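Private note to self, pasted from the team thread so I don't lose it. Backbone tokens:
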């Protein structure tokens, strides 16, 4: 099974309390490809190189990806990325806890690691022309997401910090890597 773990960074559209997805611009996409075990990143103008990788994936793995990353990417894609099976770790956690947790909370409690920044810092770095800093931040989030995914698959749980200490979130991962009956190809490759 080819799994693409991914994260995006963006700019714009964050003026209110709820981001306006129509005003948000993609800046960079970071991925890990399970087939090659390599990390890669793509600026907005390099997206045509990304599409064949996503189209050949059996599974997309992200954090807040169903609600944020995939809809943003779909603005640039001629097909429909929602047709590819996805695991959104935030969505999985929220189904169990009935609340959202930050990636940083899960990474620190489960892996003993913290993020190297936050999304608003990445927006500032991008605005200041610090593209390599944004790239490094994005790929680090991909790495944390991948490690959390693999931990959940192996142990059936993730950990988070709560007011009274570290707690476990039991996750049913049994269907995560079951083959999807439909093809992952979604219309950009020539036939």
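Design output:
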């Amino acid at each position: 099974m080819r799994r693409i773990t991914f994260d995006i960074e963006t700019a714009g559209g964050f003026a209110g309390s709820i981001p306006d997805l129509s005003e948000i611009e993609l800046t960079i996409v970071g991925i890990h490809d399970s087939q090659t075990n390599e990390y890669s990143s793509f600026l907005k103008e390099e997206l045509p190189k990304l599409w064949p990788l996503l189209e050949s994936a059996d599974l997309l793995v992200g954090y807040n990806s169903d609600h944020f990353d995939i809809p943003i990417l779909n603005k640039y894609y001629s097909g429909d990325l929602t047709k590819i099976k996805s695991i959104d770790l935030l969505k999985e956690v929220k189904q169990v806890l009935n609340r959202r947790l930050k990636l940083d909370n899960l990474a620190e409690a489960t892996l003993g690691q913290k993020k190297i920044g936050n999304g608003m810092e990445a927006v500032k770095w991008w605005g200041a022309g610090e593209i390599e800093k944004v790239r490094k931040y994005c790929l680090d989030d991909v790495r944390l997401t991948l490690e959390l995914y693999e931990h959940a698959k192996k142990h059936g749980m993730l950990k988070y910090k709560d007011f009274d200490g570290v707690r476990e979130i039991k996750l049913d991962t049994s269907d995560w890597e079951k083959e999807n009956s439909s093809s992952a190809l979604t219309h950009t490759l020539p036939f």
